[in-house]
Design goal:
It is built from eight helices and 27 strands. The protein is an alpha+beta fold. The protein has four domains: 120 residues, Diaminopimelate Epimerase, Chain A, domain 1, CATH 3.10.310; 135 residues, Roll (Diaminopimelate Epimerase, Chain A, domain 1), CATH 3.10.310.10; 111 residues, Phosphorylase Kinase, domain 1 (2-Layer Sandwich), CATH 3.30.200; 89 residues, Transferase(Phosphotransferase), domain 1 (Orthogonal Bundle). It has an 18-stranded mixed β-sheet that branches. A seven-stranded mixed β-sheet has the order 20-19-21-22-23-25-24, covered by helices on one side. The chain has a two-stranded antiparallel sheet with strand order 26-27. 40% of the residues are buried. Keywords: Isomerase.
């Protein structure tokens, strides 16, 4: 048996009250700003609007952050709605902004753009996956994955401490310095240092990190900790008055330091010029497991993103369906079942291929969720573990085989419509000239293999024509992949068409 004790990923729930500006073609709403981080929320398509126009709009309003939104097709869950989103400061685009996501969610809920049954919003970002915002009475909640940090020691700690002292204009007692994934710097100072009312020179406080959180135990006792965050954007004046994402690091740090129980509320406050209050909850989501029986071995795999607290067995029964050697057919069922009976497709990955498979899983869940079961296979989950000391993972997909009962013409129309829907979802497949990536069965067509796709694709002329191939070939304005598909399936349609 190959197994691994899982490293369980913690989650941080951030709840924040925020101010915002609503922009759409006929109305501008300007609330009174008192505390918190203001944000502009513009219902202007982040997919269809040229990037330079988005940047110009953000620069014109010169808010700390502008979120550009457009509605995406709904899925089967009536309590969830989907939006595409991009974030811009007055100077540049950023990959993620939690406070702008919270502001957007607040506007959507307050202006009743959704039905009362909608309680969650999924914001599909350009490069940072999906941000989920939930309505919680008077608060909006966003769930973040706990950020990993590494302690900084020696000369590097001394360097950062000196920069922070220079920025605050006085000597602070530095207890702890750490760096988070990518762009976060974290400095804990003594609660007696009083960082609230200091005039800080953000330009002299550049540590090499994009976000610098200066934090201390709360001196009032009403909160567990206080912080100020400094960033290199002039439109923010060098300080981010309420930063949501940094609390994926700060919340777990202070919960551990103060020995707070899991899932107990952590009270936080930003103490800059504007400031804001946050409620944090640090918890471990229920784990799901998969016992994979494959090649006379048993692999124990885990997932925190699939259906929570579900425990199943998958038994591989057949060799590859295609020339790709990592695809198998398996029976899937509950662990306590004598013989699992549901057929599924399993896509396997080892070592360096695991990240590629995980990216494909994210495409299924973030970009193509609304097309599952109609254009692409239903995705049942992503599980990972170890096998012979290597990373090992699998993705479970809908079984898509069976006798085709419809005409060639209907099949071709379904294929073209399916490809167009992929493009409308911002996905350029890139390898559809390989017929193995389009499956036809009694349940309809399914397009598969999204390991090499291009995301955020903007396509011109996403309309299936199925006219004479020569007219398609003459077009120079169409999307190349759609033109290619039209050549293939338009020609096949003509060959099989009866007078």
């Amino acid at each position: 048996m190959a197994s691994l004790t899982p490293a369980q990923p913690a989650r941080v729930k951030t709840c924040l009250l925020t101010d915002s500006i609503l922009l759409h073609p006929n109305t501008i709403w300007l609330p009174r700003f008192q505390i918190g981080n203001p944000a502009a929320v513009a219902f202007l398509s982040p997919k269809e609007t040229p990037e330079n126009i988005l940047a110009d709009v953000a620069a014109t309003f010169k808010q700390p952050m502008t979120a550009f939104l457009s509605k995406e097709p709904s899925g089967a869950d009536m309590t969830v709605e989907h939006f595409s989103v991009r974030y811009f400061t007055a100077e540049e685009e950023t990959s993620l902004c939690i406070h702008a996501s919270l502001a957007a969610a607040k506007i959507i809920f307050q202006t009743k753009r959704m039905g009362q049954e909608v309680t969650s919003l999924k914001f599909i970002t350009k490069t940072h996956g999906v941000v989920v915002a939930r309505r919680m009475s008077d608060w909006i909640e966003v769930e973040l994955t706990k950020g990993d940090v590494a302690k900084v020691l020696g000369s590097e700690k001394e360097r950062i401490a000196k920069i922070v002292n220079d920025a605050f204009g006085k000597s602070l007692t530095t207890h702890h310095v750490a760096k988070g994934v990518g762009m976060y710097g974290h400095v804990e100072v003594d609660e007696k240092d009083e960082i609230r009312n200091c005039q800080v020179s953000a330009k002299s406080g550049k540590t090499g990190y994009s976000i610098n959180a200066i934090t201390a135990k709360s001196s009032t006792g009403r909160e567990h900790f206080a912080s100020r965050d400094f960033v290199p954007f002039d439109s923010l004046g060098g300080e981010d008055h309420v930063c949501g994402s940094v609390h994926a690091l700060l919340g777990p740090y202070w919960a551990t330091k103060q020995a707070l129980p899991d899932d107990e509320e952590i009270r936080a406050i930003h103490i800059g010029r504007r400031g804001g209050n946050l409620r944090l909850f640090w918890f471990y989501p229920p784990m799901s497991t998969l016992q994979l029986i494959y090649d006379h071995k048993i692999y124990e795999l885990w997932s925190w993103e699939s259906q929570q607290n579900v425990h199943q067995t998958a038994q591989v029964i057949k060799k590859p369906l295609t020339t790709r050697g990592n695809i198998r057919i398996a029976y899937l069922g509950p662990r306590d079942a004598n013989d699992p009976e549901s057929l599924v497709i399993i896509k396997l990955a080892r070592d360096n291929e695991v990240k590629v498979l995980e990216r494909e899983y994210r495409v299924y869940m973030d970009n193509l969720r609304h097309l599952q079961g109609s254009v692409v296979p239903i995705c049942y989950g992503f599980y990972r573990g170890k096998a012979q000391g290597e990373d090992f993972a699998c993705m479970l997909l809908e079984y898509c085989r069976g006798t085709v009962t419809y005409s060639i013409q209907e099949r071709n129309h379904q294929i073209m419509l399916g490809v167009c829907k992929l493009h409308q979802a911002g996905i350029l497949h890139g390898t559809l000239d390989d017929m193995h990536h389009i499956l036809c069965s009694n349940i309809g067509i399914r397009i598969i293999d999204f390991s090499e796709v291009i995301q955020n694709h903007r396509c011109v002329g996403a309309t299936p024509l199925l006219t004479h191939p020569s007219s398609v070939a003459a077009s120079r304005n169409g999307c190349p992949e759609l033109v290619l598909m039209e050549k293939i399936y338009g020609l096949m349609d003509l060959l099989y068409r009866r007078p």
